[in-house]
Amino acid sequence: MSRKPKILLILVLFTSIIMADCLLPGDINEDGLVSVMDIVTYICAIQPLPGGMDHNCQDYNADCFDANNDEQIDVLDIVAIVNIILGEE
Fold this sequence. Notes:
The chain is mainly alpha-helical. The chain contains three helices and two strands. The chain has one domain: Type 1 dockerin domain (Orthogonal Bundle).
């Protein structure tokens, strides 16, 4: 019996689990839309405050912060979110 189909199935399931962490890059508040509220939530979550992050922010999915998929969380992600909102992605 060949093991290839089992390995392929495991790889597909593993990849699906990883990709499920963020269904829509830039949709930080996970409301199904990329909007200005995602930018507000992004800034609220990363704003350094005495004692750490502001945990009074709206719920957010940190996996969606990397809106431009460059594996870095920075101001370019906010630019990418604005471009998505403006339809320039």
